[in-house]
Every structure is written in structure tokens, then in C-alpha cells.
TrEMBL record:
Record-linked InterPro entries: Aminotrans_V_dom, PyrdxlP-dep_Trfase, PyrdxlP-dep_Trfase_major, PyrdxlP-dep_Trfase_small, SP_NH2Trfase/AEP_transaminase
Binding-site residues for substrate, renumbered to this chain: R349
Name of the protein described by the UniProt record: Serine--glyoxylate aminotransferase
Keywords associated with the record: Aminotransferase, Pyridoxal phosphate, Transferase
One of the GO biological process terms: glycine biosynthetic process, by transamination of glyoxylate
Residues of the Aminotransferase class V domain: 34-295
Entry's Gene Ontology molecular function annotations: alanine-glyoxylate transaminase activity; L-serine-pyruvate transaminase activity
Source domain of life: Bacteria
Family, per entry: Belongs to the class-V pyridoxal-phosphate-dependent aminotransferase family.
Residues found modified as N6-(pyridoxal phosphate)lysine: K204
Keyword check for Transferase: yes
Cofactor(s) needed for function: pyridoxal 5'-phosphate
């Protein structure tokens, strides 16, 4: 509970769900309409067309009324058969959960990655995937699965490099990529990077509440779905793609979230995706300046793959990150992400995605700095001052010169 009567606005700075802009809340508050009527069909056709621009694909994007986990399952069961080998790469907690799901579905996941804690501090090592595929002369591996933006650590992965690694071996495995927390915050290119199934969700860069998720499909993935033998019904692409032709779904879609998606796409495409990406990169750089000034460690060890979406802040030995996080919540009504899986208690995560601005992030960093000091964590210098300097000296890309 808060230490005070709640007033002002809650600061939701977890790496998703991210704050929902008022424009989207208003769009979602319109009356629910007949999902088989002509007005809905027109909306469906328009938004199925627009959503492809965000994935940077000419192909279809399937939209599910489900959280991201549902779209993970959909990707696997639409394309694979019982007992298939799947090469998955351990970047963190979410990669681990996806791997567990694959096993529960009756697949044979092989989980590779850097030893010890290193895997959770670096992006996917494409050469490890290449080496493993080269050994697979019988082509038993049917898919390679990687997470683009590992939300549990704040580390991204170079998906183009993974594609090149697969191509270098001539191996026919499908490439499946989870960009649940990367889409519409970090640069992502489904077609250009040769991804077969891209999985994403609504509650991060798209600035929507949780509740819709996506599979973007290549032709090769659609071909695979015609032969795949894992049981599927609700998640099956064929009936959805058929109904989507006219802007409908084979079941009741979540109409009001789709109003929100339409508004989100309008906002993102009007701003321009490159501006959206630049804005996130700049915020992430400002937040990292603060963490460095505090003298604390960033979870990601490779500057080339720092996440533009969130930053993992590692606590000094002996400090419980959850105690610090809870104090910050209670005193300042600011929610930060907890350490997940084997990072539990060792770090907290600052989300800097979606509907933020320099001042929301300055407030967030102030809350962190006060909370760290109140928790007795020794800080080398003021991160707030460092971030203020960064934000004032680095104008946003689209700032007017006036
Ligand atoms: N994958 C990643 C990278 C995520 O960040 C999340 C959720 O945060 C998931 C998968 C699971 O998605 P959901 O919680 O929407 O089911």
C-alpha cells in the first residue's frame, strides 16, 4: 500500500504494460459494435492493412484476443509437429518461459546460450546458432526461436545476424522471433530480416492495455502450417486468415481493443516509426547516464545491444532490489519492474517506452534516486543531474530549430 492518500498520477514505469495515452483510452470508450456488421468489416480491413506497416511486412498479421503468451503458443503449434526439435536461445526469463512452453507442447527444445550469468547480459550469439545448425546434417531442427528484446534484462538481439547465420548454413529451419516488448519501440523488420513468424503483444510499444497479440507470417510459415501436426483450433491461422480477408474474425474479437489499436497505429504512423525509435533510443541513453552517474551496474554488458525499451539496474551485493522497489512504490507511487527468474532481487528494471516524455523519465529517475538513497545504497553522484544534462544537451530528433 502507498504511504499516502493517492493523489496526482501513478507512474507506471515497468517495461509493459506501458501507460495508455488518453487518445487511446478515449478511442476504446466508444460503444461496442456488431462484429459481423459492415462498419466492423471496414475497421478490420483498414487496421489489418495498417498493422503490417509496424511489422514492416507485406504479408498477413494475425491478431489474437490474448496476451503475448497465447501468440507464442500460436507460433509453435501452427508450424510444428509433435517431437520436432526446436533450437531456442537463452537470453533471459522470457526466452526460458518460451522454451518451457515448447516442452509442454510436446516439442523437443534445445536451449543454447552463453554459460553462467553471461547469457542474461548479452544478446543472441548468432555464431552459436550457426555452429549448431551446421552439426544438424539430418535437418532435425525445424525452427530457431529467439527473443528480440529480452524484457527481463534490457538486452536486444541482432535478428539480421541470426538470419545471416541460418542462411550461411543453408539450413531450412524456420526463424521465429518474439518482439513482444520490442515492436513499435525498437527497430524491427519482419520481411527484410527474413523472419518466418514474428510474435508481439499490445501492452508495450503499441501503448495499449494487455489483451491482444500478434503473429506476422511469411509464406514459408504458412506453408509449414499446412503440414504441421500439433493440434490447433482456436489458434489456427487458416480460418482466421480466411475471415480476415473481409475484415472479420471467425470468433468474437475484442472490438474495443481494436479501436485502441487503430488509434495507436494512427499515432505511430503519423509520428513516423523512425522518430518513434529515435525517441526511445534517446530516453534509454538519458536513463543510462543516470545509472552510470549513480555508479551502479547496467545488466546489459554490451553497449551495441542496450535496449531502447528498458534498463536493468543491478544492485550492489547485499542489497535486495525488491525492498528498494517496494519502498519507491510506497513513498512515490512509482512502479518499477522487478527482477525476474534468476535475476529476482538482484535488479530492478526501469521502463522507458511508449507514452513517456523527458519529464516523466526525470520524475522516474528522481523517485529511483530518492528511494536508493533512503535504502542506504551508496551512490557515486546524482543520476538525476546527469540525466537532466543529457536531455537538455540532446534535443529530440524532431524538435523544431526555433
Ligand atoms: N515475451 C516477452 C519478451 C515479454 O516481455 C512478455 C511479457 O512481458 C511475454 C513474452 C509474455 O507476454 P504476456 O505476459 O503478454 O503473455
Amino acid at each position: 500500500n502507498l504511504d499516502f492518500h493517492p493523489s496526482g498520477r501513478h507512474f507506471l514505469q515497468i517495461p509493459g504494460p506501458s501507460p495508455v495515452p488518453d487518445r487511446i483510452l478515449r478511442a476504446m470508450s466508444l460503444p461496442t459494435i456488431d462484429h459481423r456488421g459492415p462498419e466492423f468489416g471496414a475497421l478490420g480491413r483498414e487496421l489489418l492493412d495498417k498493422v503490417r506497416q509496424v511489422f514492416k511486412t507485406q504479408g498477413p498479421v494475425v491478431i489474437y484476443p490474448a496476451s503475448g503468451t497465447g501468440a507464442w503458443e500460436a507460433a509453435l503449434i501452427n508450424t510444428l509437429s509433435p517431437g520436432d526439435s526446436v533450437l531456442m536461445y537463452e537470453t533471459g526469463h522470457f526466452a526460458t518461459l518460451w522454451q518451457k512452453m515448447a516442452r509442454r507442447l510436446g516439442l523437443e527444445p534445445e536451449f543454447i546460450g552463453l554459460p553462467g550469468d553471461e547469457g542474461w547480459r548479452h544478446g543472441v550469439q548468432a555464431e552459436m546458432i550457426e555452429a549448431r545448425l551446421r552439426e544438424d546434417s539430418e535437418q532435425r531442427i525445424k525452427a530457431v526461436c529467439v527473443v528480440h528484446n529480452e524484457t527481463s534484462t534490457g538486452v536486444t538481439s541482432d535478428i539480421a545476424a541470426v538470419r545471416r547465420a541460418i542462411d550461411a548454413t543453408g539450413h531450412p529451419a524456420l526463424l521465429m522471433v518474439d518482439t513482444i516488448s520490442g515492436l513499435a519501440s525498437a527497430d524491427y523488420r519482419h520481411d527484410e530480416w527474413g523472419v518466418d513468424v514474428t510474435i508481439s503483444g499490445s501492452q508495450k510499444g503499441l501503448m495499449l492495455p494487455p489483451g491482444i497479440s500478434f503473429n506476422a507470417l511469411s509464406d514459408k510459415a504458412i506453408d509449414a502450417s499446412r503440414k504441421a501436426e500439433l493440434p490447433k483450433s482456436f489458434w489456427a491461422w487458416d480460418e482466421i486468415l480466411e475471415a480476415n480477408r473481409n475484415g472479420y474474425w471467425p470468433y468474437t474479437p475484442n472490438t474495443n481493443l481494436l479501436y485502441g489499436l487503430d488509434e495507436s497505429l494512427n499515432m505511430l504512423l503519423t509520428e513516423g516509426l523512425d522518430n518513434v525509435f529515435a525517441r526511445h533510443q534517446r530516453w534509454a541513453a538519458g536513463v543510462r547516464e543516470a545509472v552510470k552517474a549513480w555508479g551502479l551496474e547496467i545488466q546489459c554488458q554490451d553497449p551495441a545491444v542496450y535496449s531502447p525499451v528498458l534498463t536493468g539496474v543491478v544492485m550492489p551485493e547485499g542489497v535486495d532490489a525488491d525492498t528498494v522497489r517496494q519502498l519507491i512504490y510506497r513513498r512515490f507511487d512509482l512502479s518499477l519492474g522487478m527482477g525476474l527468474g534468476k535475476a529476482k532481487g538482484r535488479m530492478f528494471r526501469i521502463g522507458h517506452l511508449g507514452d513517456c516524455n523527458d519529464l516523466t523519465l526525470m520524475a522516474t529517475l528522481s523517485g529511483c534516486e530518492m528511494g536508493l538513497t533512503m535504502s542506504g545504497v551508496p551512490l557515486a553522484s546524482s543520476g538525476v543531474e546527469a540525466a537532466m544534462r543529457y536531455f537538455s544537451e540532446h534535443a529530440p530528433a524532431h524538435a523544431s530549430d526555433a
